[in-house]
Amino acid sequence: xxxxxxxxxxxxxxxxxxxxxxxxxxxxxxxxxxxxxxxxxxxxxxxxxxxxxxxxxxxxxxxxxxxxxxxxxxxxxxxxxxxxxxxxxxxxxxxxxxxxxxxxxxxxxxxxxxxxxxxxxxxxxxxxxxxxxxxxxxxxxxxxxxxxxxxxxxxxxxxxxxxxxxxxxxxxxxxxxxxxxxxxxxxxxxxxxxxxxxxxxxxxxxxxxxxxxxxxxxxxxxxxxxxxxxxxxxx
Length: 235
What we know:
By secondary structure, this protein is α+β, with helices and mostly antiparallel strands. It has helices at 5-48, 62-73, 157-161, 169-175, 178-189, 218-233, and strands at 51-54, 77-89, 93-103, 115-123, 134-138, 150-151, 162-166, 200-204, 207-213.
């Protein structure tokens, strides 16, 4: 015998309320987590003497200017900025920022999705001669097929550990010279706070950006900053 109509409607209503309740709890948790993380970032930036900017409260347009710079340095990444720490703003501009990003072209399905990430960008004259943008990623599979536009550097320790991709292989080889290769190998071998698997570096006209998945801790922010500074100072 079928259940009474009123009983079925009540069951459907309870199921809907259960689903809505789960979403409400998740939303409240996300809001509280974001507030706590923003507060921690603000305190960290203030302790370092840096300016802290939230993308949704940016009357001076820093978010838009930084997004435009990232498009030139790392055109194969799409960034959605959420917060920015201005480390330096003189002749050399240095930023730490949090948000979401994804790779745009010829990538695996999971890489097309927006991923939470943290990054450091340095803009300086050191990179004004860079022609075609270059992206460097850790080789998380030693037996993986070469990626599209992969740039080789012979059978070396660097090529076993990193993949370099660019639309201009000749320019990429000049950009990722032996000094920068050495910096990246040292960084990968050092005790890392962030895992090497999550790290990607882009070098393009006017700047370098180091990116990692997830939201950075104070120690991770300082590591990203140190890596970009070492790349910038490499001859």
